[in-house]
Here is the input.
Amino acid sequence: VFLSLTLFSFNRKKMNLKSERRGIHVDQSELLCKKGCGYYGNPAWQGFCSKCWREEYHKARQKQIQEDWELAERLQREEEEAYASSQSTQGAQSLTFSKFEEKKTNEKTRKVTTVKKFFTASSRTGAKKAEIQEAKAPSPSINRQASIETDRVSKEFIEFLKTYQKPGQDIYKQCKLFLDTMNHKRDLSIEEQSECAQDFYQNVAEKLQTRWKVPPEKVEKAMDQIEKYIMTRQYKYVFCPETTDDEKKDLAVQKRIRALHWVTPQMLCVPVNEEIPEVSDMVVKAITDIIEMDSKRVPRDKLACITKCSKHIFNAIKITKNEPASADDFLPTLIYIVLKGNPPRLQSNIQYITRFCNPSRLMTGEDGYYFTNLCCAVAFIEKLDAQSLNLSQEDFDRFMTGQASPKKQESDSFSPDVCLGVKQMYKNLDLLSQLNERQERIVNEAKKLEKDLIDWTDGVTKEVQDIVEKYPLEIEPKNQALAAIDSENVENDKLPPPLQPQVYAG
Amino acid sequence: GGGARMAAAAGAAAGGRSFSFKVVLLGEGCVGKTSLVLRYCENKFNDKHITTLQASFLTKKLNIGGKRVNLAIWDTAGQERFHALGPIYYRDSNGAILVYDITDEDSFQKVKNWVKELRKMLGNEICLCIVGNKIDLEKERHVSVQEAETYAESVGAKHYHTSAKQNKGIEELFLDLCKRMIETAQVDERARGNGSSQSGTARRGVQIIDDEPQVQSSGGCCSSG
Here is the structure.
């Protein structure tokens, strides 16, 4: 419910921003609070000043609570009828159908008003009206969304109770009675409401065992279902209630975690190596789990998210260290995950679980252990100082104020918020510079080789010349003996001519 | 606080002959507390092919003279920087096992700090065990037996000597602790029988436990999840 509310108000803010940008000539009167109290208004507060906005918002909220209440009452009535007629199933079916029809018509009317809003927003006088409407608009849509889930949970609960026969009906009656009492106790402090819920858990558990003689293994199951049923309905009243400073604490933690963005896994001595793809995969999953916690309505479902997150952390440690994780490994890693994920409304969620979870699950058992560790992680983050990160006070202060970043000092360690792509890029850059270095070395060596070759040629030429100079080439006259055998025979021409072959006939 | 914890044990006893105890494990980084608890719950030591995912939360079921005991062992981060978080961990615990390394004088000093804190926060209701681990390294002993035992006695704790490596003294340690926790729980139960008005405020610690064995969500006899 709250998530969609935040989304909705976010959209609303965006719309306002747009219209603000469009109007270049802003009238002085437009900047003032729409109530005319003389103070400046703020688009984030629908054009009211903070004081008037609080009043308007409160009015809208009161109305919403009233509407929620009426809807809840109606649904409860329907449900009771449904349960009464659960033996004859046909009756129940037609009831569901009529409910469905009703929802459809609701959906239609909402669409119409939304469209109207868009058209009227252009004129200034209309805008005022539309915005007031807008402030109230979220309630029906959220009611519907929530009520669909509430309906589903109720049906499942009734189905579940059928397997318990007679005690099932008693359980249902007890739950109804509790929800009724709680509806009349909205004015009580949250701690008192928590006491009521805890009383209820204890009473029902006792009755299940002693009065209704439910077998023990079924008691735990039933308690889980009871918690789911009542807390789905109570959630919107008791999660981060206005009467507490839960929201303020949420914002403080969120701001604190943002300010600590520079904390590296090395500083926390986190025993996981995110260079291993499987490990970084586990880290991402753990972060997703812890963020998901805020989206659950039932305390036990929230606990399950913490447990899932813890299991992923154990896997990450196991892959890195190849041994089972101890608390010495687990807690720093959980702190790192919380710092990296900055889960929404951390304090509200912790408070809600503490106040409204079935105590048997929280006090002992695995879920309770992981929840305790999460509490420790948050406490550590809140009190974290230079000493707890093994840093000097000067360094810590410089990192906190953003004057320096640990990244620049240690090139190897990346700040936890650097995403994988950027990490890869840094690695590639590193690789490139290495390649560049090698390239230069090759070019230098090649040049040297060239020079060496030239020197060698020159050297050889010089040597050859030296040798040639030293031993000049003397070509001696031809050896006489080697001339024609008869060359020196002076009386050659005195010899008769050589005999010619002659042919004789005969 | 203490009231809730007392009720946890007492409530357990009242439901039948079955108890649920939370035991915290305290000790500096290298004293071998993980090995100790893995040896006890899984009978493994430095096993290369160990399949256990984690040793930070382990459970064990025992039967001591017909009384069923569900033991949940909570490991705590022993680093100095997490020291301030101790109270969050050991809130509502029935017992504490404080481990030191007999070859490391510092680790024994750390144990002394924890004892002081536990007594301050939880009073005398918590059963304390001081454990000198690594007796297989007797030759390198730096904490004298005499000193350790005298100290333990002075703070109302029991002293044990163990070796996770050689599997010595560990069964005895846990069995003894369980017996003492049962005793404390029964004393609480009797005390509560006198003034039933306490039950209203102490509800948060109450366990749903009956004569029949409980089905554990994690399953198995000494599951580690």
In short: The domain at 245-401 of chain A is CATH 1.20.1050.80 (Glutathione S-transferase Yfyf (Class Pi); Chain A, domain 2). Residues 420-470 of chain A form the longest helix (51 residues). Residues 382 and 438 of chain A are 49 Å apart (CA to CA). Chain A touches chain B at residues 198-199, 202, 205, 209, 215-217, 219-220, 223, 269, 311, 314-315, 317-318, 322-332, 359-360, 363-366, 369-370, 372, 375-376, 379-380, 383, 387-389 (CB under 8 Å).
